[in-house]
Amino acid sequence: MLSVLTNRTYRHLLAAQIVALTGTGLATVALGLLAFDLAGDSAGLVLGTALTIKMVAYVTVAPLAAAFAERLDRRRMLVALDIVRAIVALCLPFVTEIWQVYVLIFVLQSASAGFTPAFQATIPEVLTDEQDYTKALSLSRLAYDLESLLSPILAAALLLIVSFDSLFLGTSIGFVASALLVVSATLPSPKPKEPRGIYDRTTRGIRIYLKTPRLRGLLALSWSAAALSSMVIVNTVVIVRGDLDLSESAVAIALAGFGGGSMLAAFALPRLLDRIPDRRVMLSGATMATGTMAVAAILAATIPMTLGVLTAIWILVGFGYSSTLTPSGRLLTRSAHPEDRPAVFAAQFTLSHACWLVLYPLAGSLMTWFGSTVAMAGMATAAVLGLIFVIRVWPRTDAKSVVHNHPELPPDHPHLAGPKPHAHPIIIDELHPRIPLEP
């Protein structure tokens, strides 16, 4: 897996991702403390609103950012967005009103909504070999999981010697370091062959996404994964602190189980994907995680839940979650031309976060109104609906090459040059506005 680090450009990009994630992790801890400082017992409401603002920014801003990204130099765009994030982080310690937090969070997350899809779309252009790219996806997954485990520990250590306001300085330093690492790399910046209007550029990614069967399947898998992870992220603290009456450290242990399972999958995926098709791996991971959540609901209804049982369940859910979503970059890469990849990655970013925007509050509401058994069963049911949709829309034989005709083109058109019958992998574009039926 580590062999891809011999690529200097990718090495710098991975380092940029790691330092930015570390800064974001520090900001997460500091934001909770800032909310309590400003709102006291209403801090939960403030954080919940901030999370909603984050998701709204992700859903609305990402397509707009992708529309302008194709006209900008990729490296300059990423650096500028990192600088914006660094400046916002520096402003957060000086807020005195809750509305100011909301405004700054929207600006911060809007910059992230522009940065993240463009950054993700750059990696397959740097690592053009699919095996190398698969290793990079696993390393990226490991970076996310390690951040979720280590950032709270780092924040706790820093809080022994500095106030929570200083954590925002660490966040800003992380974004500046990310910008410097991006500056040090030479990045590709593919441009479209023909100029496009603002409507075309804004909606292009989502139109390509929704017309591609494998990506419609990916959206359904994202729904299932969001349903399961929402149960873990939103309700673990309620189960551990409320139902089990255990300490805060027990919450960390349970969440570490989810992260640990995800990391195990990240280590296993490169070899699995060498031998097994993406569809089977992703569908198997989602099915395993969904089945585990359903079993958890049965156990919660029949026997007393313990921390050990909950952690074991979360390990399996985390393994299935990572197996479901980590290969998604491979699907996005092979479903778009290089100049369209930022738009398609932005579409995945937007649509997957729209799933979380719906399922986060659903998971919390079910837990509040009906308890853990119904919440687990409800989120497992939501995940099953996604699995059914995957099976219906993503063909089992996702052909690499499709025989088709172009009656609208003259016989001497360059696209028709080559062996007959005319066949190639289909990517949605001007010549292929839909997946053609084989003649």
List strands and helices in order, with pairings:
Layout: H1 8-39, H2 43-69, H3 74-91, H4 98-126, H5 130-159, H6 165-183, H7 198-211, H8 213-243, H9 248-275, H10 278-302, H11 307-325, H12 328-334, H13 341-370, H14 372-393, E1 402-403, E2 423-424
Antiparallel strand pairs: 1-2
Helix pairs in contact: 1-2, 1-4, 1-5, 1-6, 2-4, 2-7, 2-13, 3-4, 3-6, 4-13, 5-9, 7-13, 8-9, 8-10, 8-11, 8-13, 8-14, 9-11, 10-11, 10-14, 13-14
Summarize the structure.
This protein is mainly alpha-helical and 439 residues long. The chain has helices spanning 8-39, 43-69, 74-91, 98-126, 130-159, 165-183, 198-211, 213-243, 248-275, 278-302, 307-325, 328-334, 341-370, 372-393, and strands spanning 402-403, 423-424. It has 2 domains: 1-183, Growth Hormone, Chain: A, CATH 1.20.1250.20; 203-393 and 430-434, MFS general substrate transporter like domains (Growth Hormone, Chain: A).
Radius of gyration: 22 Å
Low-confidence stretches: none
Number of β-strand runs: 2
Write the CATH homologous superfamily of the largest domain.
MFS general substrate transporter like domains
Give the SSE order as H and E letters: HHHHHHHHHHHHHHEE
Q: So what's the overall shape?
A: globular
Our count of helices gives 14
Q: Examine the secondary-structure arrangement and name the CATH architecture of the largest domain.
A: Up-down Bundle
- For the record, what CATH class of the largest domain applies? Mainly Alpha
Structural class: mainly alpha
Structure description:
With 439 residues, this protein is mainly α. It folds into 2 domains: 183 residues, MFS general substrate transporter like domains (Growth Hormone, Chain: A, Up-down Bundle), CATH 1.20.1250.20; 196 residues, MFS general substrate transporter like domains (Growth Hormone, Chain: A), CATH 1.20.1250. It has 14 helices and 2 strands, in the order ααααααααααααααββ. Helix 1 packs antiparallel against helix 4 and helix 8 packs parallel to helix 10. The chain starts with 7 loop residues before the first helix and ends in a 15-residue tail after the last strand. The mean pLDDT is 85. InterPro entries: MFS, MFS_dom, MFS_trans_sf.
